[in-house]
Amino acid sequence: MQHSALADALRLVEPTRPGEAGAYRHYSLGAAYDEMFTPDGDVRPCYAELNRSIAQISSEELKRRQQACELSFLHQGITFTVYGDNQSTERIIPTDLLPRIIAGAEWARLEAGLKQRILALNLFLHDIYSDGRVLRDGLVPRALIYGSKHYRREMRGLSVPRGAYVNVCGTDLVRREDGKFVVLEDNLRVPSGVSYMLANRDVVRRAFPTIFRTAGVRAIEHYPQDLLATLKSLAAFQDDVSIVVLSPGVFNSAYFEHAFLARQMGVEVVEGRDLVVNDNVVYARTTSGLKRVDVIYRRIDDDFVDPLAFRAESTLGVPGVFNAYRAGNVVIANAPGTGVADDKAVYAYVPRLIRYYLSEEPILENVETFLCREAKSLSHVLGNLDKLVVKAVGESGGYGMLVGPHATRAEREAFAERLKADPENYIAQPTIQLSTAPCFIDGEIEPRHVDLRPFILHGEETRIAPGALTRVALKRGSLVVNSSQGGGSKDTWVLNQ
Amino acid sequence: MFYSIRHITRFRYSNPVRESVMELKMQPRSEAAQALRNFQIATHPRTQLYAYTDHFGNAVYHFNILREHSELRLDAQSVVEVNQFWPLPAAADSLEWQRYNPLNLKAEHYDFLGVSEFVPQSPELMDFIAKRGLEKPEEDTLTALKRLNSTIYAAFDYEVGITEVHSPIAHALKEGRGVCQDFAHIMIAVARGWGVPARYVSGYLYHRRQDKDRSGQDATHAWVEAFLPSFGWVGFDPTNNIMAAERHIRVAVGRDYADVPPTRGTFKGDSESELAVSVSVEPTSAPLRHEEFLRVARPMSPPADKPSSPESQYYQQQQ
Amino acid sequence: MLSRVADNLYWMSRYLERAEHTSRLIAVKLEAMIEQSREDSEASWRRVVACLSSEPHIPSGPVDPFLVSQALAFDRFNPSSLITSLRLARDNGRQVREQISTEMWNRLNRLYLKLAPLNLATVWNEQPAHIFREIVEELHTLEGTAYSTMRHGEAWHFLELGRYIERAQLVSRVLEIHFGPASHSGSALNYLDWVVLLRFCTAFEAYCKVYTANIRRDRIAEFLLFDADFPHSVRFAVERISEALGRVAKGAPAARRAACERLAGRLKASVDFGQIEDLMGGTIDAFLANVRAQCEQIHEAVYTAYIGYDAETVL
Fold it and tell me: Three-state DSSP class for B70?
């Protein structure tokens, strides 16, 4: 939209309201919580600076800045590469120009909640891989843990440095209609996306250099240094710690991130075939000979880490590395076996775990989850199928998902039968309207649903970079933020205040 | 009595291989009626051996060989003392089924209740159970397990070469033939379906002509142990239709074969490998040598902070 | 650096050098065809084929320039064809994208993707030499990009090692075909043939600067073998090999490094102190064969020392 030349000349700043003529004419507020606007159409304080800036920038200029972002990504090679024999296409995950902004005080609460959560999860992992107190006390059903394919009995009794099983965690949060952030899921195995968090910051800051300064945005560039310090803190001796990033290789879609983090930390990215275990010690094959490895930041799933200990057909891993880990001669971060704690069903128990291990009330709530294995929950679910999303959690038996509000009566009835036959395999959650944030779509500013994935590092200390990967569902009305299904991402600004 | 066991394993490679990594579960266990008196493993090519105790209390040795080799030989020798087995009563009482509760079952028992890699709940298994009348039994636990033991013995022929090391039980169930590994898996599957913790035992059987065992002499043997709260782990050998007793020497226990293979390894090289095994089990006199082998520490024993009920205490005394 | 990465860098560079050489030979030959008689042209083509193979004899038989060019450049089943070399260079480069710069990768990738679907028949009737000239130029640019955008650390020196080992062998081979026993059969080489030889090695103008336009057989051999300053001479290549060896695997034990450096030193001595007069009497072919053999030994030694060593030999 063009301001008049006069308006430009006078720098008349007339912030407009959603739905009215002006920059936000296509911005319609719905039931979801909007990050930028209150239901009355007032700008929330943390978006004030951005709003002022938008009023001064023409739509053409915004388009130009959006294009510059995209080009920057391409030039830096921050792409997903789809390789074919005779072609390879580079795709970028679209980054939206407009940053998602979170107030400092709000972030402080999130940070405290995330720290509490990872502490409890690590205590839980330690427990189920040693005494199993939480299982004996009946807080979590033993069958759920023992039957989980991510529960690695090999980890029982193993001594893990600092009791830190999860060293890198990506927790997905969403903001409900009432404005409260809740946890959607934890990613405790091989969480990815932090390179996009950093790349987004890089390009978006250059798109809005002035307000970046004046708004007081907290820095996140130090993430790789924090990651390095975290990994280093896990080593037995702190002198001359040798760290590598273990990747499946260039054909893995997340390879860019593996190599990027390795480069930023000043360590090598390796594949399984670059490492060899001799006499229970891990070495990397270098041109200068075999060099001992002390810490492996592994971006490979448990199953593939060691063909001797786990899946025998794996060619991605290192034979014997788990025994070296067992002997304390190398550190594997994240530890094998963490996946049992980010299981969909175990997720529902996490608030109880926080109370059990820390004797504290959870600062961050889960999305309300009904465990159908519990009789009371089951009857509630059966009585409210039209309002709930029901998901299968087990690997065996249960299948499918029911989105209650979108299903027909017949579908609900059929599903109810399945539920009654095998309640242990299902959980149910109310549908949530993710919050919306302003996005620059085809020359207009429009609201799109977003989530939030901050990254938590846990070693000697727990560190959380003041930022996150905000994922966007780019299709209007869509709630699906996955990049493979039409999602994009945004830079996330956490303000000093 | 004492047994002297020699278990030789030889791998031959069609082309020289390098960077071999291997784990061995060959050291007989020391617990209950069995005590390990001596154990040695020699490898050729020579290499440094390391050891640990796994989550089932098995002694695991491991090693790696970097340099090129065309053959790998493992020579395991042990002397084991097997004491007389306490005779079991003819049957358990009718309340035994009810003793499968959190009071009597410890953490370790739950590992042996669920499905595992070689012990799935498959349609072929359900078929077999229905055909042989092996749904939840009416008689007491011990009698039921004995019946299961002989049912499997009767239902299958022992034949080598029909199934192989990685065969799922569906294979043997379809063929009606198999080897001790298959019979053990099937028995475990049925027992677990009844709610009885059942585990796979790999080890050796001292064959005597008069016993007319079906199992092969020159090989390791596999059988089953089922947990009865009043008696502890009781051994059943469905291959030979007997209870495990003084002729059975226990090496490793697990959920199924995947947990206890005598050897498991990887190597680098474009080569086929041929495996040859020889096993000899002989009674022997008491050894004079000093005991030298990996002392198996019990993996995490959770402190018993719940007092056992007077009822189970009574049966423990009876043992 | 990781041995695997060194391996990829080394081979990427060798394949790029091979691709450039192949492309240049074809381009030069196509341009020269206009001035050659049919008989001479055919003989010349046969020499090109011989230069790009390792067969002991120059092939005989009729020559169809299109088919030959097609085979040498775009035959996917020919392990030394231009397109195969580019494909392998790209495959190796892709594994080490982190070591080479983004610009380098993008250029290499684009070049391959442009040529992969190319059908020579569609451009044959226009200016076929043009295509090959473009490829040579693009590869030159790639080399320049590497030089200016990569840090001259271990990675870059493995690129140098690959490039110059390949170059030493390729130039020796070209000389073998023109001076060795193979050249004695068939008709003697004429003035144009010698100019073509120099152009094969981008040496015509440089030669003229050193020796004037007087094309003499012995001087050509001297230039391409012993000139210290011309980038496509064997001596220059050997000098770069020696230098690169001194700059890689700095942390390796001295004994390992000595093995490679010793071999390079020996080769260097034979080209540093070589005299063309000694060779023109008939021993030049033995000399060239020896150069190629020693390059091969250096390649083996590099592998044994830094890349493909058996793990137990270093513990």
Answer: strand
Neighbours of chain B (3+ CB pairs under 8 A): A, C
Q: A268, C2 in Cβ contact below 8 A?
A: yes
Instruction: Kindly report the nearest CA distance between residue C311 and chain B, in angstroms.
Output: 6
Q: Which of B170, B183, B167 is nearest to B126 (CA)?
A: B170
- Which domain, by its residues, includes A382? 368-430
> Tokens 């996009």, residue?
A196
Region B277-302: mean pLDDT is 70
What are the chain C neighbours of B66 within 8 Å (beta carbons)? 310-312, 315
Q: With pLDDT > 90 as the criterion, what percentage of chain C qualifies?
A: 65
By C-alpha distance, the chain C residue nearest B66 is C312
- Give tens-digit pLDDT for C139-184: 999 999 999 988 899 999 999 999 999 999 999 999 999 987 766 6
The model's pLDDT over B46-100, given as tens digits with 9 standing for 90+, comes to 999 999 999 999 999 999 999 999 999 999 999 999 998 888 999 999 999 999 9
Amino acid making up residue C146: A
Neighbors of chain C with 3 or more C-beta pairs under 8 Å: A, B
DSSP structural state of residue A124: H
- Pairs of residues, one from chain A and one from chain C, whose beta carbons lie less than 8 Å apart: 67
Q: What are phi and psi of C75, to 5 degrees?
A: -80, 115
Phi and psi, residue A285, nearest 5°: -85, 105
Q: What is the CATH number of the domain that holds A278?
A: 3.40.50.11290
DSSP B287: P
Entry pTM: 0.90
- Phi, psi (rounded to 5 degrees) for B294: -65, 120
- Whether A375 is covered by a domain: the verdict is yes
The structural domains of chain B, with segments of one domain joined by +, span: 2-82+262-284, 96-258+309-318
Averaged pLDDT, A455-466: 96
Q: Do C2 and A250 touch (CB under 8 A)?
A: no
Q: What is the rounded end-to-end Cα distance, in angstroms, of chain C? A: 18
Please check whether residue B165 touches A, CB under 8 A.
Answer: no
Please tell me the distance from the alpha carbon of residue B49 to that of residue B42, in angstroms, as a whole number. 9
What's residue C48's pLDDT? 93
C17–chain A nearest CA distance, Å? 22
Class of the CATH domain delimited by B96-258+309-318: alpha beta
Fold annotation for B2-82+262-284: Immunoglobulin-like (2.60.40)
Residues 296-335 of A with CB under 8 A from B: 307-308, 312, 319-320, 323, 326-327
Chain B within 8 Å of A135 (Cβ-Cβ)?
A: yes
Residue B100 in tokens: 């499968």
Tokens 């004996």 correspond to A136
Chain A: give the shortest CA distance to residue B22, in Å.
8
User: Quick one: DSSP state of residue C304?
Assistant: I
Coil, strand or helix: which one is B243?
strand
Please tell me the total count of domains within chain A: 3
DSSP B49: -
Contact at CB, B110 and A323, closer than 8 angstroms: no
B291 vs C: CB within 8 A: no
User: Cβ separation of A77 and C97 shorter than 8 Å?
Assistant: yes
By Cβ distance, the residue of A156, A276, A312 closest to B299 is: A156
Q: For tokens 């990506």, what's the residue?
A: A170
pLDDT at position B140 over 60: yes
Interface test with B, best of A126, A142, A396 (most B CBs within 10 A): A142
A327 vs B52: CB contact, 8 Å cut-off?
yes
Determine the 3-state secondary structure of B72 from DSSP: strand
**B156 neighbors B201 (Cβ within 8 angstroms):** no
Contact between A144 and A346 under an 8 Å Cβ cutoff? The reply is yes
Strands B177-178 and B157-158, sheet pairing: parallel
pLDDT at A432 over 70: yes
